[in-house]
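Deadline looming. Please check this record:
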Amino acid sequence: MFEAAGRNMNDYLTFKPLDPLYCLKFDDRDILVSADHAKMKAQIQEHFPGRKMDLEKFLRQERQRYGYLLPCIQKDYSPCGVLTSMTLIKALPYLSLASIFQNLGRYFGDEKLRLSSPSSPSTWECLPGNARRFSRCSLYRARVGNYPRGRRLNQISQAMAKVVEEEGGKIFTSTPVQSLVVEKGAVKGVALTKGRRFCG
C-alpha cells in the first residue's frame, strides 16, 4: 500500500530484525532458531554434528523453488486467462501437495532438525502429524526472517491510516459496511448498514 501511494514504508515505520526467531526446547537440547544462515549452521553443527550441509542443500533448492512460486503469489487472478499463463505453467513442477514437515524431510532427515528449521511447522505451532497440507515455499522465513514493529503491531495499521489521510481520505471506525457499490464492473464506493453511501 505504501508503494502504491508513492510512499516509503521506512519513513513511517521502524522494523527491527528478530534474532533469534525463537528457542526450541527439546528434552536433550535447546536450539536457537535464526534466519542468519551462519548462526543457523553453527547451531546445526553444535546439536547435529555433520549435518550443517543439509541447510545448504535446503537453501539452494528452495531458493530456486521460491523464484518460481513467488511470481504466482503476486499475480492478479481476476482475469481467467491468467490460469494458463507461462508463470503458472513454469511453476507447476515446483508445487507440492506434501505438508511443510514432509517437504523439509527432503533435506533434514533428523526429526528434531526438521523442527529446528526457520520455516518448519513449529513456526506455526504445528506438530509433524497434523502439519497443514498446502503448497508453501519453505524458504520465505529462512530468507527474510521476522521484522516485528516493537511491541505494538497496531502501529502498522496506524501508519497506513496516516497515508490515507495524507491523500485526503477519511477513515471511519465502528462503521459496518453492508455492500460495495459497483458500477460497470468497478468498485466505486461502499454502502453502510445505516443507509449511507460513500462513493469516490
In short: The radius of gyration is 22 Å. Residues 121-137, 139-145 have pLDDT under 50 and may be disordered. The CA atoms of residues 152 and 158 lie 10 Å apart.
